[in-house]
Amino acid sequence: MLSIFRQYTFDDSFEQVFVSSKFLKEYQIALTFATDYDDEDHPTNGLFRPTWDLSKVTPEAIAKFKEKNSDVDVKVFISIGNRGTHQPFKPLDNKTWIANATESLTSLVHGDELGLHVDGIDVLYEHIDASPGDFIECVGQLIRNLKQNGVVTEASISPTFPLNRDFYSRLYSAVSFFIDFVDYQFQKEVDFVANPSELFEKYSVLTKVYPRRKLLAGYSAENEDWATLSPIVFFLGGMDILKKRRAPGISIHYHNFYAQQ
Q: Which pLDDT score, from 0 to 100, does residue 113 have?
């Protein structure tokens, strides 16, 4: 049984997903992204704001989805980060970034702007313009603050291959007690993954760094992310990961692009 399914989205695509308690215990909606950049792409040093579609991701939409799927535990995460090289992690001053990030995300979670019941925070930076030490200090303390202050009850990190060894694995080692999930993004593998057994082996290697009970297998339904890992290889390999490695779940980046046309 698939325990957890996470969907990364900036719109209300979750409304289109079939959810059944026969196959699923928990459904996580990860909203992409909260960013500390302004509209002109200038870094704001930890002052985070939402960039997902606020007209579609509403308290009413979330409440309706939860009511429709009341036999499954539905949770909402705010994902801070970026895709590609756009708006990378780039603190101007660590101490100020931590203070600003803690205050702005607390306001975002508890304030009236969103009106959502937010359960968790997710960290998904695909590009980091800072040292590993700065990343670990800033993000690690932010996660500590948000969880210790009761702002969120859960926290996750979402590593990619290029950043895993120097940044994310070291971040996990520093604040492992505060991290509930590690959502590894397999679509960002550098080397071509030719078959499901290779994907299975990559997941198995990751369990030497991250506890299996926390390690989700992540993928993307966006065509531009299929260069090194095809959907069929992920699907077949993912089934083996769930069955043989007893992974807690998977995640998919999926948006309703047709609604934008």
A: 79
| CATH code of the domain in which 214 resides | 3.20.20.80
Q: Which two three-digit tokens encode residue 218?
A: 């992540």
User: Regarding beta strands 24-35 and 154-157, do their DSSP bridges make them parallel or antiparallel, or are they unpaired?
Assistant: unpaired
Number of domains in the chain: 1
Which of the residues are catalytic?
A: 126
**By the 8 A CB rule, do 247 and 215 touch?**
yes
Mean pLDDT of 97-105: 98
Q: In residues, how long is the chain?
A: 261
pLDDT tier for residue 255 given thresholds of 50, 70 and 90 = confident
Domain that holds residue 178: 2-260
Q: Burial-class residue 38 by CB neighbours within 10 Å (0-12, 13-18, 19+).
A: exposed
